[in-house]
Amino acid sequence: MEPNDELADELRASTRKALDDRMPTSVLRGVIDTDDRFDRGLYALAADLGWLGLTLPESVGGVGGTWHELAVVIEELGRSMAPLPVVSSVVLGAGAVLLAGDDDQQQRLLPDLAGGRTIATAALTAASGRPADGLTARLERRDGAVVLSGVSGFVTDAHLATWMVVAAVDGADVGLVVVDAAAPGVRIERLDTTDVTRRLAHVHFDGVVIEAVDVLGGGDNVEMRRELLRRAGVAIALDSVGGLGRVVETTVEYVAEREQFGRKVGSFQAVKHHCANLLILSETSRVAARAAADGIGGARWPEWAAVASSYCGDAYTEATRIAVQCFGGVGFTWEYDIHFFMKRARLSQQLFGNPTHHRQLLVDELRFATPVG
Amino acid sequence: MFDDDADLQAFRLRYREFLHEFAPHGWRAHATTTDATLDIQRSWLRTLAAHGWAAPHWPAEYGGMDATLAEQIVMQQENSRAGAPAVTMFGMALVHAAATLLEFGSEEQRRRHLPHILQGDEIWCQGFSEPGAGSDLAALSTRAVRDGDRYIVNGQKIWSSGADRADRCLLLCRTDPDVPKHQGITFLLLDLRSPGIEIRPIVSLLGSGEFCEVFMTDVVVPVTDRVGEENEGWHICQTTLSTERGPYLLPVVNKLRDECAAMWTMAEAIGTDHAAQVAAGFHAEVAILSELIDRTLLQAAFGKSGNESSILKVYYSELSQRLTTAALEMAGLDAQLAWTEAFDLNSDTFDGSWGLSHYWSWSWTIAGGSNEIQRNIIGERVLGLPREPRPEARRS
Amino acid sequence: MHFDFSDDELAFRKELKEFLDGELPVYFEFFDLPPEERAERSMAFVQLLSERGWLTPAWPVEYGGSAQAPWQQMILAEEMVAHGEPRTGQYMNVNWIGPAIILAGTPEQKAYHLTRISKGDVLWCQGFSEPDAGSDLAALRTTAVRDGDEYVINGEKIWTSNAGIAEFCFLLARTNAEGRKQDGISIFLVPVATPGIEVGDIESVLHPGAFHHVLFTDVRVPASCRLGPENEGFSIVRTLLANERTGVARYHRAAGYLDRIATWCAERDLLDDSAVIETLASARAACEAARLLVYQVYDEKTRGLDPDVSAWAYRTAAVRAERVVNEAAFTLMGAEGLARHSFADSQFEWAVTAGVAGGSYEMQLNSLARVLLGSKG
Ligand SMILES: Cc1cc2nc3c(=O)[nH]c(=O)nc-3n(C[C@H](O)[C@H](O)[C@H](O)COP(=O)(O)OP(=O)(O)OC[C@H]3O[C@@H](n4cnc5c(N)ncnc54)[C@H](O)[C@@H]3O)c2cc1C
Ligand SMILES: Cc1cc2nc3c(=O)[nH]c(=O)nc-3n(C[C@H](O)[C@H](O)[C@H](O)COP(=O)(O)OP(=O)(O)OC[C@H]3O[C@@H](n4cnc5c(N)ncnc54)[C@H](O)[C@@H]3O)c2cc1C
User: What is the DSSP letter of C376?
Assistant: First the structure.
């Protein structure tokens, strides 16, 4: 029934320890001040600890684990806000190649990724970053060659990527292609977002020539793109769950110390109830995201992916709003960490589709599967 | 979200077969009064008991099955799949009274009551709240004075659900007024047919007689009907109350699921994206609630949980309120028409009246410890925040 | 109650809007400017207002006002904040610092300060909060000790907006350590340039120069700087801050902001989506609810009624409006709303500070409850 969680508990403890040691917020603050927002050494450690190969098959240098374990790592990354392109590389880049690539493509691209020698991502949305909007990158055939033009919006970690999978309009279909980030015609426009713990980019393609070996898919590409977005949404939900846990802890810690009117402010019922609400948001999000992660590929997976993505996005932003409120004035200072979570939550709520979008996906699932209940 | 393993699957099929053979059909058409509903439930409970399915959560030696939580969940799923009646009117007996007796009752008390409960021969109610003791339950003042091998009880209880049809009552009384309030309370089993008891139904906002006042004048209760030791009632009643946040919640989630499906139908009729998205949002939350209950209860079974179950109660009850509020908005004036009388408010299915569901949802944010109290519990006992200073201290 | 504006008032609003539209770029946020430039541009702009009699119209004529009905002040407050609040910190002067001096000032204080405020040539900051005195303002520990005809001030203020550019500080300090803590506080009108005052930046997540701490080390000010009787500062401030509660027309700015989001949606053909319309409409309703509450406050004031309940209710409604509009912005604009300095970003700042600055949302609810429940609470 409930998967044996001893392994997951161990993985959680070791992941948390590594991130607490290597990426406490004091260190994070230094990293986000750099243009890349990236800690190469920590990424190498992530490879050594096996986070990158967790869900990759052994044939490409992975350990063949499941999303149950990957979920643990993503939650812990969300908790520490460590700027590591794990979700971009593993869930998006490798995920796309596993889903849509043939053996040769997998053998060529994934061992280096699992070993931390390359970084990947996927550019799956239009310039607006909204999954429902028509793609603004397109493939054309010119003199027998496949050429990529246009733009993909709000791509995560594109500035670090060695290669990326791009979803582009291909006639009446969607094409999925692997693009070398250093190829001529690729321009990465770094974005300045309010969330400073991540780096996004618009990626512009100006007549980028795509080799035949870099064309993925060939099956139902539209569904493959949809599936990647689904997984991305659940990854963000898991990241939010990690963040939520930390938000509850730090807020409770603060209000249990801060005194006004000769009392700990946490003893005032208004504040205490805020904290209770934080815990409720955190616990409900946790079960949603974990249920989704555990159900990947199962019969109710699309439904649970939409449940988790829509709920956690709202819950995380609401929780950080409450948390900042509990901190009062210090919540607005750069010195306290809580604002990082607030802004991270905001970005997470919008990345790979906002809650309204995910509820619409759920509507589609329910229509398809009626009757519900 | 659990996938059945082989054993569970076998269990499921066994129960499904039983339901297929024995579950009544068309009973809803006959459930047109409270008494008729009660009869239907009683006869179904007896059928369940005859085949050993009546009290899955009880130990086998008392006629239960030692069922795991997963098995209880499976039974609930199969019940609703088969449209079998829920035995809600016996809930206080099967769940609250039984849990209390199994944990704190004497062997003699268990042997005396549990078989009757199983057969639907004893309906129980709960006499905890008083006019002056609601959230502050420990302030209760109903007095029980020891007189040889009996107690003489005087006082008044209020909000006692179903007392007018009950045979027995789980009663909290003050036996020592001179110690701090939590330390002078005793837990008694009251026979409601004893002389000196007057029961007056209170008309609830639904217009029905959901709960009652119970007046006790020189009522005699034998000492053998005391649960646990004298003055240890506070500790014991925590068990009684916590059952409401346990597997007891499985049927109510079922009702929410039912309501969600009904809302979905309305949303599709309205036909806008917005309406469909609102319905989908609730569908998501009910799925989360159900998952949360399964996981919390599983942990509880392993002895890890306790106060965390307050999270369940708050989330469940407010979800129910938000859902029915949105549904009333979608349903428009149709849902404002007066509904026919409610016979089984705790039913595990939606009976088609959003008004009933909506107004009844407050019972869950108030009864069994209001949500404000639950949030205090979450803040203080789960998160470890400091308590409010005592009012006495503030005055001085 | 009639909330129709009179023809005169409508004409006034029109004239004011035309003037502001002519002087200011569209969608200009003064708070986004670096502090010095903000101060400079704002000072210049306020001169223009003063010349037209639009700075302190509700003040008595003798102090540089034109004794207009409070409604005009209301219209001013709405249009100013909708145009990026070009008065910046000077809105405080108009709303409550000036009125405090009118209420409690000596003839000399009135002559000096009110003239300057009504001419629009002075910036103030508010020195109330301390590290250990936020919600519990009366717990403040900055001391002012009488020494002959001077006071010597020591202590630390925090969160002081505009302290880096202000000329004067409206300071609360403890003059009596005995007895009830509310009864030992006095007000001082202190030039920020006085020796011993040190202003430091606090790095914040808000607009540049939003916050400061201000250290007072043996700061000597003449006793004539004290406003009102010794030890009665707290009650003066409490009365005056009632004006502060309704002085900022947050709902109007938020509603205007919502119009911009609607335009943004229209440009993207989103307005036939029922979910978009719901979101916009319910956010607008929250703004209008706050507006009606503040109109009720003004109505009660003009009719000599006690506006306490509606004033606190308005405060909480205004916070809610800011929050709902903020949510609408992010919901509708998606990832595009997350670019730094996007207009969703600036609404974000208004919305999150709304429930903390000038008394937290929880304290507002406490106050409202106290008014409703009285001694029963
Ligand atoms: C449908 C229904 C069925 C019931 N069935 C039974 C039954 O069978 N047997 C039985 O014994 N009782 C029963 N009750 C009673 C129920 O347990 C009480 O109503 C409940 O404990 C609240 O007490 P009260 O009604 O006296 O409200 P009060 O305690 O007077 O509370 C009034 C309000 O004040 C709030 N409040 C009180 N104290 C605090 C605090 N410290 N902090 C914050 N807020 C506070 C409450 O949350 C509530 O909002 C039932 C109630 C209902 C609604
Ligand atoms: C943008 C901004 C600008 C500001 N500008 C100025 C300025 O110019 N001058 C100035 O003097 N100050 C200024 N302040 C400070 C502001 O007045 C304080 O932040 C505010 O009073 C809250 O105090 P605090 O930050 O110490 O929070 P705390 O008082 O520590 O509050 C922390 C939390 O506890 C809650 N809480 C505290 N007491 C109670 C209670 N009794 N009941 C229920 N809940 C309670 C609060 O609501 C809050 O959620 C500014 C603040 C901000 C955010």
Answer: G
- CATH among 2.40.110.10, 2.30.30.180, 1.10.10.10, 3.40.630.30 for A121-219: 2.40.110.10
Question: What does chain C come to in residues?
Answer: 377
Distance CA A122, CA A200 (A): 12
Is B273's CB within 8 Å of C273's CB? yes
The verdict on a CB contact (< 8 Å) between A279 and B382 is yes
| Verdict on whether the full-model pTM lies above 0.80 | yes
- CATH 1.10.540.10 correct for A6-118: yes
**Cα distance from C90 to chain A (closest Cα, Å)?**
22
Question: Two tokens at C241?
Answer: 């801050």
What SS3 state is found at A62? coil
What type of residue is C7?
D
pLDDT, tens digit only, all 377 positions of chain C: 566 889 999 999 999 999 999 988 877 778 778 888 888 988 999 999 999 989 998 889 999 888 887 788 889 999 998 888 888 888 888 888 999 999 999 999 999 999 999 999 899 999 999 999 999 999 999 999 999 999 999 999 999 999 999 999 999 999 999 999 999 999 999 999 999 999 999 998 887 778 899 999 999 999 999 999 999 999 999 888 776 677 789 999 999 989 989 998 999 898 988 889 999 999 999 999 999 999 998 888 888 888 888 999 999 999 999 999 999 998 888 777 777 667 777 788 888 888 898 889 999 999 899 888 886 65
Instruction: With both helix axes pointing from N to C terminus, report the angle between C308-333 and C343-354 in degrees, rounded to the nearest 10.
Output: 150
Q: Which domains does chain C have, with CATH numbers?
A: 7-122 (1.10.540.10), 126-229 (2.40.110.10), 249-373 (1.20.140.10)
Class of CATH domain A222-369? mainly alpha
- Measured from the Cβ of residue C44, the count of other Cβ atoms closer than 10 Å reads 12
Tell me the residue type at B274: H
Cβ-based burial of C4 (10 A; exposed 0-12, middle 13-18, buried ≥19): exposed
CB atoms within 10 A of CB B203: 10
Query: Which of helix, strand or coil describes residue B171?
Result: strand
Question: Is B105 inside any structural domain?
Answer: no
Q: Residue B277: its chain A contacts at CB < 8 A? A: 356, 359-360, 363
Kindly calculate the radius of gyration of chain A based on its CA atoms and give it in whole angstroms: 21
Range of the domain at B211: 124-233
* Residue C133, token pair as written in the block: 């005195």
Q: How many CB pairs under 8 A join A and B?
A: 134
